[in-house]
Amino acid sequence: MLRNAPRMSTALDELAERIKGAVFTAHNAQFDAGFIERAARRRSGFDLGPRLCTLRMSRRLDPERKQSHRLIDVADRFEVPLLNPHDALADAAATAGVLPHLLDAHGITDLSQLGAFFDR
């Protein structure tokens, strides 16, 4: 599986290019960003920038925590398919699918309104 994978430096360069000017968004962004930042520790100038957390957004809608906020459950609530949970690409697609619903549920229409949901 890893035998044909690109070198870490190549993958980090590609990631940096893809997220340039974007907001890194993940369900439990702190967890995902931790892996990336540890891998990039030796690369000067690598910065994920702001990290938007859909887990945090989901939890804020349910302050008494009456619902599960696992990605599979959040996706199910918003009727977003998650066919292969814990697969990076499937999780990313589901996160992208639930994000508009979470933005709408919070009444967010502008980037400036996202501050409370950033991980750093």
Describe what this molecule looks like in 3D.
The chain has 120 residues and is mainly alpha-helical. It has one domain (8-117). 46% of the residues lie in helices and 5% in strands. It is built from five helices and two strands, in the order H-E-H-E-H-H-H. It has helices at residues 8-19, 29-39, 54-60, 71-77, 88-105, and strands spanning 24-26, 51-53. A two-stranded parallel ribbon has the order 1-2. Strand 1, helix 2 (29-39) and strand 2 form a beta-alpha-beta unit. Helix 4 packs across helix 5. The protein is globular, with a radius of gyration of 15 Å.
Report a brief summary of the structure.
The protein has helices at 8-19, 29-39, 54-60, 71-77, 88-105, and strands spanning 24-26, 51-53. It has 120 residues and is mainly alpha-helical.
Helices, strands, pairings?
Layout: H1 8-19, E1 24-26, H2 29-39, E2 51-53, H3 54-60, H4 71-77, H5 88-105
Parallel strand pairs: 1-2
Helix pairs in contact: 4-5
Strand order of the largest sheet: 1-2
Structural class: mainly alpha
Number of DSSP-assigned strands: 2
Query: Which geometry do the CA atoms define?
Result: globular
The mean pLDDT is: 91
Number of domains: 1
Output the helix-strand order: HEHEHHH
Strand content: 5-15%
Q: What is the C-alpha radius of gyration, as a whole number of Å?
A: 15 Å
Quaternary structure: single chain
- Ranges with pLDDT <50 over ≥5 residues? none
Question: What is the end-to-end distance?
Answer: 33 Å
Largest sheet: 2 strands, parallel
Number of helices: 5
Give the helix proportion (percent range).
Answer: 40-55%
